[in-house]
Design goal:
Structural class: alpha/beta
Strand content: 15-25%
Oligomer: single chain
Number of helices: 7
Radius of gyration: 17 Å
Number of strands: 7
Length: 213
């Protein structure tokens, strides 16, 4: 059996109901109030109602310096308490859920700074142990879901931009450290969304939370 087949078998019990998961939820919007926060709330409510164990972090509430140049890989114990707690919860989890807006074709600068600072050699990858030129990932055995809000519709993300942010997140960030597969839920266009549309998005995310996916 492949690892994926084993995961599928172990997340569903004999009655067909989803078994509880350990989920880390990161609201990656830098503002306290946002649609991303509302989606994070919906996922959290759905997951906890279904019995999943969920630990949440909100980017706006995390205290850390997002400038990698101030520390570098050679700094002694460079992680602030909030980043240490986040990495500890990621190590504890078996599923990562990340919300992010799409800004200028990518994630917000502070969210990118979080990955720059937190995903360090020794806690997310091992540069001393390489295979085909790539360092050994240290966060294997975890899956991810990205809840992305945007004004760019899904067809334009595919046809015009080649899913650039999806490739960056799934391959060059999360996949690089062993978190895969990464699935995406795209909510757009936000600018034109009605209250009914947003309510539908919230309901969809709540269902994802209940299923732990």
């Amino acid at each position: 059996w492949s690892n994926l087949s084993y995961m599928k078998m172990t997340t569903v019990n004999f009655k067909g109901r989803t078994m509880p998961k350990k989920i880390m939820l990161l609201n990656g919007h830098p503002a306290e109030t946002s649609l991303n926060a509302a989606l994070a709330d919906a996922y959290q409510s759905g997951a906890r109602a279904a019995g999943h164990d969920l630990r949440r972090h909100d980017l706006h509430a995390l205290s850390f310096n997002d400038d990698f140049a101030a520390f570098g890989y050679g700094a002694e114990d460079p992680l602030e308490p909030d980043l240490k707690a986040l990495m500890q919860d990621l190590a504890w989890s078996d599923h990562l859920v990340l919300t992010t807006p799409l800004w200028w074709g990518g994630m917000p600068a502070r969210l990118k700074g979080l990955f720059d600072r937190a995903f360090l050699p020794g806690n997310s990858f091992d540069p001393r142990n390489k295979r085909m030129g790539l360092p050994r990932p240290l966060l294997t055995g975890r899956t991810a879901r990205v809840l992305m809000t945007a004004d760019t519709p899904a067809w334009a993300m595919r046809a015009v931009y080649g899913r650039a942010i999806q490739k960056q997140m799934s391959r060059q960030i999360l996949g690089f450290v062993g978190i895969k597969p990464t699935r995406f839920s795209h909510f757009a266009p936000v600018e034109l969304a009605t209250d009914a549309t947003i309510a539908g998005w919230v309901a969809k995310v709540s269902a994802l939370g209940r299923n732990g996916t």
